[in-house]
Automatic annotation (TrEMBL):
Claim: Magnesium is one of the keywords in the record: no
Single biological process term from Gene Ontology: proton transmembrane transport
Organism: Halarchaeum acidiphilum MH1-52-1
Membrane protein topology class: Multi-pass membrane protein
Protein name as it appears in the record: Na+/H+ antiporter
Entries under InterPro entries matching the protein: Cation/H_exchanger_TM, Na+/solute_symporter_sf
Residue ranges constituting the Cation/H+ exchanger transmembrane domain according to the UniProt record: 14-376
Length: 387
């Protein structure tokens, strides 16, 4: 059987069109948000790629692999130990910036008579904050080693942990053939990866497999990601959770997830843009124009407003300084990977419909620009304020 290369035309569109929006990188807009825009414009609006395009099956498969890589990277970015540096303050801020938006999202969706699971996914989407977006902003302004920057990153890490846990339970309850067993397995996995592994077994595992990971982190990381994704899919839990746990395991074993992420950047750059383009091309622009303004506007207002309110209220309760509170308030609405992944999982598993999917994707794109602009504005005017 001869090899076929019809898929190259689809990939040419994906990789080529993203360059149209590269000027947005000057304002620290993540390239992946640019890829969503490219998918909306060149996929949804102009139809350069559609299910009838040559090589579309390969395009879809590469998009699925890209989603695994995105969740793997999300695991790499997390460091559960940073939460321990100031646990009480971080817990207050984390709960207010996650629980308040989550409850507001669930209540809003239920008020619109959406299904309980759609309401649950709405809560997850409006409550998450993307560490992959916030970390570069904190780093750009030299705040990584600053107490304020560490606090912001710690709260973001806790938000990501809570988001992944909530997403894991929600998806498992809906998609698992045995929901009770699935929830039990997810609970065990979360406890192992977020408690036992980082705080009990980290040193032992590092000494056992560290050499193999460090010598070839890309090969080890991809193998572990695929192996855990396959394993959790086989037991009835979504494959993306296996990819996330693989990234978290590698980060804990190496104690340097950001370096491993840089080493694996070529694979992410190859696959993640395809997923985000795929997300963008599935946005129905015609439906957005005729969408229920209450649904669309409500998701946007809640996704941005409740995070701001939660951060501002949390800053006051935790006794933060003015500049620190403003930096936290600017950062918290920023979301991308987890919210987009939740939207795609929800649509593909029949949990949500297209109108809510479109609202989630639109919120993800808008929140990137809002967080970047707001953080730059606040950081440029911030004094050396004590926490």
């Amino acid at each position: 059987m001869a090899l076929e290369f019809a898929f190259v035309s689809a990939l040419l569109v994906v990789y080529g069109t993203s360059y149209v929006f590269t000027f947005l990188r000057r304002w620290d807009v993540p390239l992946l948000a640019v890829e969503i825009l490219a998918g909306i414009v060149f996929g949804s609006a102009f139809g350069f790629i559609s299910p009838g395009s040559a090589g579309y099956d390969f395009f879809e498969a590469l998009a699925a692999f890209g989603l695994l890589m995105i969740m793997f990277d999300a695991g790499l970015e997390l460091d559960p130990e940073v939460v321990r540096e100031d646990p009480l303050r971080v817990a207050k801020l984390g709960l207010l910036t996650f629980v308040l938006p989550f409850l507001a999202g669930v209540g809003f969706a239920l008020a619109l008579s959406l299904s309980p699971f759609a309401a649950y996914l709405t809560g997850v989407t409006v409550s998450t904050t993307s560490l992959g977006l916030i970390y570069p902003l904190v780093e750009d302004y030299g705040l990584v080693d600053d107490d304020r920057g560490q606090l912001i990153l710690s709260v973001t890490v806790l938000n990501d942990i809570l988001s992944v846990a909530a997403l894991a339970y929600g998806v498992t309850l809906v998609t698992s053939d045995s929901p009770v067993l699935g929830v039990g397995l997810v609970t065990l996995a979360l406890g192992f990866f977020f408690v036992v592994l980082p705080f009990v077994l980290a040193d032992h595992i590092s000494n056992t497999v560290r050499e193999g990971v460090v010598s070839n982190p890309v090969k080890f990381g991809v193998f572990l990601m695929i192996a855990l994704a396959f394993a959790v899919e086989e037991i009835g839990v979504h494959a993306v959770l296996g990819a996330f746990f693989a990234g978290l395991l590698v980060a804990i074993v190496t104690s340097d997830g950001h370096r491993v992420e840089r080493d694996m950047r070529p694979i992410t750059d190859l696959t993640a843009p395809v997923f985000f383009f795929y997300v963008g091309m599935n946005v129905d622009l015609g439906a957005i124009g005729g969408a229920d303004p209450l649904l669309l506007g409500g998701v946007l207002v809640l996704g941005l407003g409740t995070k701001v309110v939660g951060a501002a209220l949390g800053g006051r309760i935790a006794g933060l300084g003015g500049d620190t509170t403003r930096l936290l308030t600017a950062a918290m609405p920023g979301r991308l990977s987890i919210s987009v992944a939740a939207a795609e999982i929800g649509l593909s598993r029949g949990i949500i419909g297209k109108p809510l999917y479109d609202a989630f994707v639109l919120l993800s794109v808008v929140s990137v620009f809002v967080a970047v602009v707001a953080f730059r504005y606040v950081a440029n005017g911030a004094a050396s304020d004590a926490i």
